[in-house]
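Continuing from the previous page of notes. For each protein in this section, the sequence appears first, followed by its structure tokens. Read the first protein now.
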Amino acid sequence: MSVPLALLDWTALDETKRAAALERPAQREAASLLERAGRIVAEVRERGDAALREYTEQLDRVRLGSFAVGPAEFAAAEAALTDEQLEALRRAIDTVSRFHELQVLEPLRLETSPGVLCERLIVPLGAVGLYVPAGTAPLPSTAIMLAVPARIAGCPVRVLCTPPRPDGTADPAVLVAARLCGIGQIFKLGGAQAVAAMAYGTASVPKVDKIFGPGNSWVTAAKQIVSADARGAALDMPAGPSEVLVIADGSARPEFVAADLLAQAEHSEDAQVVLVTTSRELAVACIAEVERQMAVLPRRAITERSIGGSRVLLVPDLDMALEVSNRYAPEHLILQVAEPRAWLGRVRNAGSVFLGAWTPETMGDYCSGTNHVLPTYGHARAYSGLGVADFVKRMTVQEVTPAGLADLGRTARTLARLESLEAHAHAVSVRLAAIERESLA
């Protein structure tokens, strides 16, 4: 018997109960997860491929002779897909590429003061690691969302890791999507061990500078661990179990709302969905509709557990609905209200926003063009969704002429002495003195 969505009246909750209503399930075990993931990371860092083989056999239940995907497996993967599937992958790559090509940053060049030239150069990251989950379901769409901006940014080394299947192969659709996006180095590795392999490098897996991609709580914990280590690799963002918050008023269709909630709930048992509505009638109808639709879904066992940790929150008006949403800071925010664009300006914290009844979150997951790698756990308060800018560095340059230093150098010297940094001031003074001497010669 499934646990129905809990219906809570937000105005009747005190602050403690409100915080509990918006708590993510995975956060409750964060400290324990970090400790356990840390042990895996340390083992891979110290023992490399040997540790990878042991963890792959223990956790993925397969023993691999080689982690790398070879030409024969790539060919078999393409042969395994239908023409319709191949066309869908190509169409999604096209729409995602077109939106991301608009995100390319341009160099800047400005003379901020006479004789003082400042520039900003755009430099692609040298080596990037892309993680594509495949635990409860393979995600070729994630391969597209990671590989497309990496290619557009011009990163010369692009490594992709994805968990092996029980037969020792990687998911064919993931392999084909990656190859269509120009990824040549793919390794059959999953979980915290894959993150560690890319962060530190092994005999098989190249070391990268930054790791991208969503995953379960183990992957998220491992990314946090290696990013805190100077020997490791930076992370894109905290991107763990999926989540969605739907704001709906009385005009929303219960079958649409329920379908959007279930679309995220089926990702994993620790996914979370939240409905915030101004209508008690709609809330009751959506709870019933979730039960009805869930009964016929193939991933019902996973979905039921996810729904058990989810909520329906009743609020008096849309103003409060937006307050609740901004506090929760969802990965995905769906506005199923009468005039959704009118409320867009009130959204402050969300990874990606979906406007209106005809914009299911599924479109953003696959092919609308936006990126589906988004911050979770409430990190949308400070992080943005993935884009081309995440795959480049913005490096500044300055060049000062003697005339420019003579004009602006005294300002720098005064400020240096204001901070009691006399060596800083001297670096300017010695040049000003040289300029003066040479002008008199």
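Done with the first. The second protein uses the same format. Note its length before scrolling.
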Amino acid sequence: MIASISGTVSRVGLTDAVIEFNGLGYLVSLTTRSALELKVGISVKFHTAHIIREDSQLLFGFQSEEELAAFNLLCSVSGVGPKSALSVIGSLGVEGLSKAVASADDSMFKSVSGIGPKTAKLIVLSLTGKLVSVANQSAPSSIQAANVTSALVGLGYQERSVRKIVEEASAAHPESSEQQLLRFALALLSNARKIDTDE
């Protein structure tokens, strides 16, 4: 699985680019905005989603981990393929997507190519609670918090309690990575259980 790619731009298209590394050229699909920022010969790094199919292998590149996480969440929605997910990120950005979901405003997807009204409603419904508007760029991203919350719920913790714990951990450790945030949240949950037991 290719999680990121660093190299030199050898070709730029409207929605993709070829990144050369160790003698190999990797075709990476990008948002139009990202592609327009590139020039042949510059060095770049992209966080990537590596999608393997029976007849192809596709790389989708993003400038930030937040964009990649939002892309992966979109791809988890029934009926949303990677190209449509890329269009959403390119048109709305992470913050625009977060606002659309938080306000249940599926009309914001009208400008996104390949996303019809039914799919827009499904995206809003499916991602509610997983995406919130990014209010503070210096704090751990809402995408990180949503991923950590989902992971803890998967471990059997109650979502209501987990959200409060993750918010507390985020506030206490604003520069933490997603893995660090998960460890901090688990530690807080463990301490909370000890207190309950002592009482």
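What the second structure shows: The chain has three domains: 4-63, 65-132, 135-199. The chain has a mean pLDDT of 85. We return to this in next week's lecture.
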